[in-house]
Design brief:
Four copies of one chain form a homotetramer. Helices cover 22% and strands 29% of the residues of chain A. Chain A is of the alpha/beta class. Chain A has two domains: 56 residues, Vcp-like ATPase, Chain A, domain 2, CATH 3.10.330.20; 208 residues, Rossmann fold (3-Layer(aba) Sandwich). In chain A, the strands form three sheets. In chain A, strands 9-8-7-10-11-15-12-13 form an eight-stranded mixed β-sheet, with helices on both faces. A four-stranded antiparallel β-sheet of chain A has the order 2-1-6-5, with helices on one face. In chain A, a hairpin with a 5-residue loop joins strand 5 and strand 6. The two termini of chain A are 45 Å apart. Chains C and D meet through strand 2, strand 6, helix 2, helix 3 and helix 4 of C and strand 2, strand 6, helix 2, helix 3 and helix 4 of D. Strand 14 of chain B pairs antiparallel with strand 14 of chain D, so a sheet runs across the interface.
């Protein structure tokens, strides 16, 4: 029995998808006729219901993946391969407060709102009014708007918020806004960036090197799909070869404090904070990076 | 001011890391001398504190990435690149209930517990008593044990739980346990698997094709790191080329229901559910897969 | 001044390509009118000539790449990325004798014939009469037929030739023909194979392990193209993710001779012959694998 | 029976390798004792011979791959994956004349000399006297020096040769030498470049765009090795992720000739010459790029 207010995903035998919030007594008007939400609620997830024209629809509990696929978009949106990694690196989870800009169509905003839960907060900046409105509608539709504070403002003018746990910039010239970060996040906060060209990556790295940032990282994520055929197993013929470069840095108040002669070092070198290959290192019990806890 | 009970990460100028829960009046014994937790609490995140020997330590709020790096391990643990993607595909978020086996050292368990939040639940099965204990200690250390139900049991004997939203198997012969899945998860639940060899992938696909599963997917995730140097930007010389193959499938009660002659199709074909390239498809407003909401 | 008998490549302003052998007094009939070969010869490579309708055509000296692109095909043909690597590994060069099967459309045959020169020989087996004829025409067209001996025969019945320097099999079940190799090549000869699925790779490896072969290698070659734009440099959005797996092995009369107790080892272990990572190892002067010459 | 003057590769049971030219009556002094060349000649390729201390050595006919591995080096040398592709794209084969700079240790020079055969020519420029000498010795050792003309000169001062079929620059700032190319090669000649960083690629592209060049291409080649185990088949854990970017361009006297109003176009647009994805396009009979021959 599905509860009112829960999101449901309805899929026709042709693959047509309808994302709705369950309402007692409600109806869904599909290309194949009308579905009664009460019948959907009674059937339950993973079951089939029929329209008044007798067409079968599968009822599913949508995953975040489904929600993001359903975002109405007027901009390029981020791919799951980058989004998942981002959550790990930025430390996003239930209770996190995160600042994002620009909002765009709200694809990443949806993911951030999903993961911060009801105890967290997403603050998202967008200077274009049309995107601001579009994202608002998208968030409303998937029932996550209450976790998001949308701001229709150019971040050139700075961020209005402070003390965020993490920050993500998906803008064309992020190096122009680095100066606004210290007032927006807590010291030690992780900052992420997504950029399509290597020229932009170079420009951003120059900005980060000049500012209060440490642990710089640049990486790409590639997903290689295989044809799921047991006896003729092989990779797909083609794949997505490029979406963007992910850049990460930690905001540090004193990233390069130098030791005084005859005194103890006050700061820590970048190399001490960032293990060369943090994700990829085969880690064993005697790993020098292993925590002493 | 850091609150008692919060996790803190202390990093020496040499990169030595200590993960602790803050206790009023507590002490941390490092290789460089003693740190007072009250001083740490007062300094706050992103700041430096000194040991009684005058050595500086950086205080950070640990990310999930930091927690997983700190897992004491006797087994290979999953990489962030796979973990992040898994959360997206399995639909894990605050409030989710997820079943996992085997627990191993508890690396993925830590990530699952992080993302399900206090309103969710991770149920993790492990037949070896030593791993069961090790994972328990690791979860305790990072303050996530209360979100996890550990079971020291061979899943050969079935799962003890039902109605989970998602399930993940990281075992050598997952195809032997597919029969236990329908009783453990809700219809429509996403199931994930991680396997190192293509022979295992073939065996698993055979099992999934014979069972109540749809939307089969096989993929690999590659992370390619770059040297973060603005004027000499280029990829690292070497990279991790293989950790494992991720396999996904949706548990469906009637994955292959055939339409009766003269009647409506009751089931939906796999191809309707699974878009060929779900993550990678460039999605536009007129995308046939876009949701009608 | 281009000599009669030389191959010329003519390209229209629309990119239409014509590959011809230069004949004194000859004509080329294009979609844009007639070209006189004498004018082409006089203009020379890298220059433009006009048809009788006044359309310009560029005259180029075709590379092997151009020749292979021009192969009329009824089968999938190999990609330059695999062909180039093959030449290196199989040791093909001027003077080499190499056996190939199947001929298919003659794409690889063209490349082999190019590289063995007039002092070498390519012997190519094809059981299907239609492909045999097609490849013959393709080779004739590019002026390389005199370096090739075509055989219209099923290699099930063995090879008719012996003493080849190298051998390449591009057939569906190469493991069925391994027994014919020792009579066809010199001891120590390199053998190559191309296979689309991992199931076939496993089957072939089983066959090679059971036979007189050493130095087994399996690899894939990926080419990632970039958009050649100086100020917006980035990889192409999509790439070819899979063509096939290349497998290599050295035919050895005694690949696994065991040392007698109290005697000297007669054979050499596979591991001694094959360095773990032969192509990729960064090689330095004190490399243990470096030759003593 | 191996002929005097032929190259032989001798491999100990421990994998120690000796590359020599066979001389009647000669001897090879190994770590395991003395080998008689007459016995080697009589044994033949693929056979074993014993030292005077009774140790077995395998006799092989070296491939190009073996020769390059044996190059004594004081510089980074190119990998087979790039070398093979280069031969294809530059159109190198028996009879080709090719210009190269810098010579370095002579690794690529060896490969070029191998493929051009006795009827071709490699002209290689190196400004450093020590590398010039080292490469000379390396070429002598593998018996290919007679196909190579070495020049100890800075290409800043231009090339001394003209009319080459192809040209390859492996120097730090190739964009500084583009002006010397037109006098060195035939119109329409393919030019290749290898560069480690994207900053250099951008600089080179700017130079090529400003000069008489067409068909610009930038690409990377990745080789992914697999563990050759039939029942546990999977990729190697690590791989080489970066050696360099390959850049190609065709030298054209009039790369951008514009059509006059009311007249026929005189030149051809880059896009007409360069198919978007020349190597990777799945080519079929009705391919618009297919040659009309």
């Amino acid at each position: 029995m599905i509860e009112p207010g829960q999101l449901i995903l309805l899929i026709s035998h042709k693959g047509k998808r309808y994302l709705r919030k369950l309402e007692a007594g409600g109806e869904v008007h599909t290309h194949d006729g009308k579905l009664l939400m009460d019948e959907v609620a009674e059937a339950g997830f993973g079951q089939y219901v029929k329209t008044h024209l007798g067409k079968s629809y599968l009822v599913l509990k949508p995953t975040l993946h489904d929600l993001i696929k359903g975002v109405k978009r007027q901009t390029q949106i981020m791919y799951p391969k980058e989004i998942g990694y981002l959550m790990m690196k930025l430390g996003i989870g239930p209770g996190s407060t995160v600042i994002e800009s620009g909002t765009g169509s709200g694809g990443l905003t949806t993911a951030l709102a999903w993961f911060v839960g009801d105890t967290g907060k997403v603050i998202t900046y967008e200077r274009r009014a049309d995107f601001y409105k579009l994202a608002g509608k998208n968030l409303e539709r998937v029932g996550l708007a209450h976790r998001v504070e949308q701001v229709n403002r150019n971040i050139e003018d700075g961020f209005l918020h402070s003390g965020a746990d993490a920050l993500f910039l998906d803008v064309r010239t992020p190096w122009e806004y680095l100066g606004a970060i210290p007032d927006a996040v807590i010291p030690g906060a992780m900052c992420g960036f997504l950029l399509p060209t290597v020229n932009q990556v170079s420009d951003l790295l120059r900005g980060l090197e000049d500012g209060p940032f440490a642990e710089l990282e640049v990486l790409e994520i590639l997903v290689r799909r295989w044809k799921p055929v047991a006896d003729r197993l092989r990779p797909d013929d083609r794949m997505v070869a490029h979406t963007g470069f992910l850049v990460f840095a930690r905001y540090m108040e004193q990233p390069e404090v130098q030791p005084l002669p005859g005194d103890e070092p006050e700061g820590i070198p970048d190399s001490a904070l960032s293990d060369e290959d943090p994700d990829d290192a085969p880690v064993t019990e005697d790993d020098p990076d292993a925590l002493e806890v």
